[in-house]
Design brief:
4% strand, two-stranded antiparallel sheet, 2 domains, 134 residues
Length: 134
């Protein structure tokens, strides 16, 4: 069973909006939301590029966490917005392995029957490593 290709730009934009929404959910202001949106956009794009180039998963998650954190820290450093601590805290929430873990273990098939897809062994190993890091 092959999965359909995903539109990487759409996933990038929607992930950035979702992370900015978490900022609002945790009490962040509009400027914090904008900073988190930009930080997530940069971090997730770095992750996509490095995954395409088949780089080491540890380096991918290091870079995907480091650069958004630096961007989010600018809000604290330059006193942008009223909630810079929430900006910094929510800037890397897209790295939490909940959804990739669920997607790597369970694939939806027709009529709500779930089966484990054997072609996801690389994704399973990657998710296992992410969980070990947390």
């Amino acid at each position: 069973m092959k999965s359909s290709p995903e539109n990487q730009q759409l996933v990038l934009i929607l992930t950035s909006f979702a992370n900015a929404s978490f900022t609002r959910l945790f009490g962040g202001d509009s400027i914090s939301m904008l900073i988190v949106f930009i930080a997530t956009l940069v971090g997730y794009r770095i992750k996509q590029i490095m995954l395409e180039n088949r780089m080491d998963i540890r380096l991918i998650f290091f870079c995907s966490a480091f650069f958004p954190s630096v961007i989010a820290a600018s809000g604290h450093l330059f006193s942008l917005g009223e909630t810079p601590q929430i900006t910094l805290g929510t800037s890397v929430l897209y790295l939490i392995p909940g959804i990739p873990y669920i997607n790597s273990r369970v694939k939806k098939k027709t009529r709500l029957v779930y089966v484990i897809n054997n072609s996801d062994s690389l994704k399973n190993r990657s998710v296992f490593f992410i969980i070990l890091c947390f």
